[in-house]
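Hi, here's the filled form for the chain we discussed.

Project: internal
Contact: R.S.
Residues: 507
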Amino acid sequence: MIKLPVKIILLGFLFVVSFGAVHGSEIPKKKKQPNIVFFFVGDMGWQDTSVPFYKEITALNQRYQTPNMERLAREGMKFTQAYASAVCTPSRISLMTGINAARHTVTNWTLKKDVSPDNDHEVVKSPDWNLNGLSPVPNIPHTFFHSENLPLLLSQNDYRTIHVGKAHFGAIGTPGENPLNLGFDLNIGGNAAGGPGSYLGTNNFSAAWKGAGNPLLDLPGLEAYHGEAIYLTEALTREGLKAVSKAVKDNKPFYLYLSHYANHPPREKDERYYQKYIDQGLNELEATYASMIEGIDKSLGDILNHLEKLGVNDNTIVVFMSDNGPPMQVPQNLPLRGHKLSPYEGGIRVPLLVKWPDVTNPGTTTDDCIIIEDIFPTFLEMAGLNKLANKSIDGQSFVPLLKGVSSNSVDRPLLWHFPNTYYTPPYSVVRKGNWKLIYYHVDQKFELFNLKDDIGESTELSKTNKIKTKEMAELMTKLLKETKAQMPTINATGQFVPYPDQVSSLH
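And the returned structure, exactly as it came back:
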């Protein structure tokens, strides 16, 4: 071994130190983890905004006044083909786990322990699904056990995880009803309920004013606003701003899951915006719904302004999304067909806006498809947790899309599965490329649509294009088997509804 004189060694050391001092920018520094705000809303349709997600501006775009959604679209990326489940709880569990509803089998909404909201049906019976929702604890009947939920993984990697608003992850009396058991460090307003007793602070956000209602559904952490003339959306926003301020003060990266109950029932007018919609000629329900949407938009603007005020805007990702389409009581989301709980685009296609400073190009649009379980790996990759993101079972990260790289969404099949006898007959749906097949479980009938030519799903093609119908039915069967999806039972025979590729009309 060659020995160098001590003087040469010291000179070399001094050169390295001085070079590093002068050229410090060339020494890699650990990049600070970005903050993530997931602004998640309920029952808001693809067209329930002044942001046009269709190729042209529609009547609903002109009706609603959502300048802050427009601002987010200008500053980030708009997704024209983003999807959720057709009903709330399945969407929420999929985003928490990265798992499709067919696989986690929480296929309908949850509330009371061991009680299904499904109705009796004369032809079929719902399967024995996970009606108690998501659980961080194993061996609880009728729950989907998943220990590594999104907020927990972020919390374990230095994030302050903040839950504000609607949870609706698990039934009353199960661990999953409390967001604190699922990895959140703070919970304001979240429990087993899918909707509040009231949106009004003067009613304590409770249904007790009606002389009825389950007190177990009263929202926690909002007692300071009881009796005040304040709308729930505003109260939740204020709590979210406080939590963000504290995280910034503590120098902690944060994940804010701000999940507004609006526009879920009970629909109560937001007095700040209601009258102007009445003056425009809308009826009471339409004006109430529009006022709730504008309240959501005001909340979004408050969040964006607060991030700027705190000086963290440039390192904060903001994602806006809805959990399903609008209910049938409000205006149809034309040109889309259908509504919440239906298999048509109006039930499952939702608005999605993403702002990621220095990553997404402002004012851009993508037509690539993403689905709700993609949130899980995407947020983990955004946080720099790529190894965890790669463990996602069904969800695929759309970070490449945000960086301007087109995905393989044309080749990737998307699956929806609703084997429940609630509100609508049970069904399964598969989309691949522009083709979409709906399989109705009760009568084993198919509907085939080409969404590129027919976004309104008005021209049914299964009879005229039997080759594509058979191809899509075989693909749907493959996915249902891979996910071990539950099928309803036929009452007359006690047998399961056949898989799509077993239907005689295909052969």
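Let me know if anything looks off before we file it.
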